[in-house]
Amino acid sequence: MIKLVNVSKAYLKNVKILQDINLYIEAGEFVSLVGQSGSGKTSLVKILIGEEKVSDGRVIIGDWDITKISRKEVPYLRRQIGVIFQDFKLLPQKTLWENVAFALEVCGQPQGKINKVVSSVMRLVGLEDKKDRYPHEVSGGEQQRAAIARALVHQPKILLADEPTGNLDSINANEIVDLLIRINNFGTTVILVTHNREIVNHLKKRVIAIDKGRVVSDQEKGKYLL
Amino acid sequence: MFLSLIRIIKFSLQDISRNVWLTIATVTILVLALLSVNTLLTVDVLSRHAIDAVKEKIDISLYLKADASEEQVTSLKTEISQMSKVKQVMYTSKADALRSFRETNADNPEVLAALRELGRNPLSPSLIIVPNNVEEAPQLINEVKQIDSDIIESRDFTDNTLILDKINDITKKISEVGLFIICIFLFTSMLVAYNSIKVAIYTHRREIEIMRLVGASNSFIYLPFVLSAVIYAFLSVMLIIILFYPFLGILQPYLEVFFMDYNINIIDYFLNNFIIIFGLQFLVVSIISVLSSWLAIRRYAKV
Ligand SMILES: Nc1ncnc2c1ncn2[C@@H]1O[C@H](COP(=O)(O)OP(=O)(O)OP(=O)(O)O)[C@@H](O)[C@H]1O
Ligand SMILES: [Mg+2]
């Protein structure tokens, strides 16, 4: 469950890039977040993962009010929210397997558990046979799948995808979206930030559109407006 | 916990090996700083020994006439003993003087033969005056010069106080210059350590970003860099130990010549005080490099 109450955000004084956002996203929902470049989508994602603080309003995730989350608490929030980005953010000198394992290593998990979890998420995203390749040895779609696998290692309740298909051709993009749907079907809340009209229209799920920092439409089984 | 420690060490070693040249530069500067510290320490130890050696040689002797009577000697001795700057007066009789003369020339048969030839004891009895403290020696010598007694045959003063002053002077100057150099090196060390960690953070910016995203705790992000700083300190102290003992080995023979009969062993000094000298240096260098890396971490890794 994600709840935003009257959220405003200004990086610079008096320049509000998010204004009076009120949102309620149920656990297990699949939501697309659309809007023009600069409308504040990434800022919203950053607020949800505790990277940016709101200027006004409240943010609640599950039963945790993260509005004034401290730096010490942020890591625990991140272990409950998986994130993926347009640029994958994989480490080039590590294999796909090592990239995924890295997320568990730096959280102090024992090797035995790492092996088990990594092989299960690699299987989930369909990369078992390419696990020993380096990022530059696989396609963009496969890199994004590795990034998704990494985002899933902590079994997060929420998966945020900030334009995950932005760098991919339509075939790879569709595969990624299918994967997100599959993950959603396991009960994970998925928030997909995208520019891709076709994908949104094809999904037939809830669409939230923001423009100039305000929610301008919020529809069940929505279409890409604007 | 243990597992995290191993991973932190692994990360730190990775950071050091990825920036080998930077590590070398940092450690070199730290070694130079330590070299100046240890050189100054050596100078200090040597000057203290030199002062002791010279102090040992301050010698105020009154040679008495051979025919001075027991009472005359005793009364002169009492008179001098009562002087405020005198610690002790030792009487060496003719016989004592001869005995010690024989001992010092035991392996010099010609001298002994000449002595036998002479058929009598040619040596004078003497009074050796030990000053209360060395600084007052010049005044004491003046006072002793003014003692008027029939039985004094000659007076012999080896006044080394001028040399003492010189040694003190030189040591002070070297210490001042040395401290200045140490300060410069310490400051440079801080700058270099700061920049090394800054570059290390820059090289690892993707890892750091990802660690953040996947929920690594802050300590896991910054501890490898702190550890790297400690490793810089450790490496530099190790190197200075390896470099400095041979240097002392080269120095030692010269010292033995310079100090002559005074017993000095600078290597022993550094060996006997190994833990305190190098332990302290490791501690101080660690603090300096950890402190500066911490500043870099705060600034560039934003933890
Ligand atoms: N750190 C920052 N400091 C100041 N302004 C910022 C900062 N980050 C973003 N902005 C501004 O906030 C506005 C919203 O940016 P944001 O990245 O959230 O947009 P977006 O909807 O994700 O755009 P895009 O579709 O291009 O990714 C933009 O006008 C941007 O210039
Ligand atoms: Mg964006």
TrEMBL record, chain A:
Protein name in UniProt: Cell division ATP-binding protein FtsE
SUPFAM superfamilies per record: P-loop containing nucleoside triphosphate hydrolases
InterPro entries: AAA+_ATPase, ABC_transporter-like_ATP-bd, ABC_transporter-like_CS, ABC_transpr_LolD-like, Cell_div_FtsE, P-loop_NTPase
Role this protein plays: Part of the ABC transporter FtsEX involved in cellular division.
Record-level GO BP terms: cell division
UniProt GO MF annotations: ATP binding; ATP hydrolysis activity; transmembrane transporter activity
Record SMART domains: AAA
Keyword Cell cycle attached: yes
Similarity comment text for this entry: Belongs to the ABC transporter superfamily.
Membrane association type: Peripheral membrane protein
Superkingdom of this protein's organism: Bacteria
Every ABC transporter domain range: 2-226
Any coiled-coil regions, as ranges: none
UniProtKB/TrEMBL annotation, chain B:
Principal location listed in the UniProt entry: membrane
GO biological process, one term: cell division
Keyword Transmembrane helix applies: yes
Residue ranges occupied by any FtsX extracellular domain in the UniProt entry: 59-148
One Pfam family in the UniProt entry: FtsX
Family: Belongs to the ABC-4 integral membrane protein family. FtsX subfamily.
Protein name: Cell division protein FtsX
